[in-house]
Amino acid sequence: MSGDWPHGYGYLPLGEVTSTLDEARARVGEMSGPTWITATHQTAARGRRGRPWSNPAGNFAGTLVLPNLTDPASAALRSFTTALALDEALTTLTGRPEAFALKWPNDVLLNGSKLAGILLESLTERGHLTGLVIGIGVNLASAPDPGALEPGALAPVSLMGETGLSVTPDDFLEALAPAFARWEAQLRQYGFAPIRTAWLARAARIGETVTARLPGDEITGTFRTVDEAGHLVLSTPKGERAIAAGDVFF
Ligand SMILES: O=C(O)CCCC[C@@H]1SC[C@@H]2NC(=O)N[C@@H]21
User: Fold this and answer.
1) What was the ipTM of the complex prediction?
2) CATH number for the segment(s) 209-249
3) What is the pTM of this model?
4) Of 1, 47, 128, 158, which residue is 20 to 30 A from 170 by alpha carbon distance?
């Protein structure tokens, strides 16, 4: 599997790298359109909020580069298309849709624990958005040692550990890439509304009490919905709050 796929995305499979996100930043100038970059091993993979991301062999590590995205609001919606594509790929490969759920803003859960994470990073020039890189890690073969988890954080699990199914990173990308291309085409053609509906149908903990941790603040409330901008909407004793970015704890 290399070069171009039928859906027109490029593909760059790499061996050991610091991070596929670093490779994306270094190589975006050579790319004319959306391109997947994968690595067999990352020596300095990163997760959200500057956390390290452990990447044992056999797990999926990839970055999708979307050059020429210049609207920040629509770029952020790729959290949702990416999560839906991951969910679709996992459902296709396992036949078990009921086992997976989506956690706002960027995680895929398996049996209620964290299976996959997504990290969006902006590419900018002179303060303007010029593109987006979407880093994706999926614990296919093994779950990393959770180390010291924040209170309330979900422990990682692996697809192999939870289901006994063996899926290689290459097989995973074969399912993920066309799924992403379809969700991306839908977003471009119809806007966020159908993506939002599809995401909500797969969301974990709607109607339940959750806590959103923001820099310097913590908001607890009932998870009502995700609004038209992709913000998390919580009902709190002080009224409804729409949260643009943060970490959610159950
Ligand atoms: O849940 C998170 O914190 C997001 C994790 C994202 C990890 C992936 S692995 C491939 C890509 N390269 C990185 O350095 N990080 C992302």
Assistant:
1) 0.99
2) 2.30.30
3) 0.94
4) 47
